[in-house]
């Protein structure tokens, strides 16, 4: 629960400052932020499937949506798609360029659920096709039972 609360705080607080909320009839507050053709400075990425360290630059479109209800439940969803350039650091290897999509969802109340997916398709500098799929699901029940599932493929 602490991990989910911390993650919620790290994501929602900065984005809440930049987005306008909308009140709904059931008392829920929602906001949506859309980023078109955002770019990133190169950042270090640790591949969740292989543990390899890589330097990545992305150009992306992103939609972030949040709903908070007065009964202490919430849901956050972020979908990002775009193109990337990946330069392996450790172990060394050929540069990879391609397309990615990722969806991150966290929902909470009496039970908390976090789902994260990452799909990557690209081609390395040697012409080899690179495909990766990542799924993570973390659930914590109101009684404290935690189920953490991660799949790479």
Please give a structural write-up.
The chain is mainly beta and 153 residues long. The protein is 11% helix and 63% strand. The chain has one helix and nine strands; from the N terminus they run αβββββββββ.
**Distance between termini?**
28 Å
Q: Could you estimate the helical fraction of the residues in percent?
A: 10-25%
Q: Summarize the main sheet.
A: 9 strands, antiparallel
Query: Count the helices. How many?
Result: 1
How many domains? The number is 1
- Ranges with pLDDT <50 over ≥5 residues? 1-20
Counting helices, strands and paired strands, the structural category is mainly beta
Rg, Å, rounded: 18 Å
**Morphology:** globular
Strand content: over 45%
Number of E-type strands: 9
H/E order of the elements? HEEEEEEEEE
What's the overall average pLDDT, rounded? 83
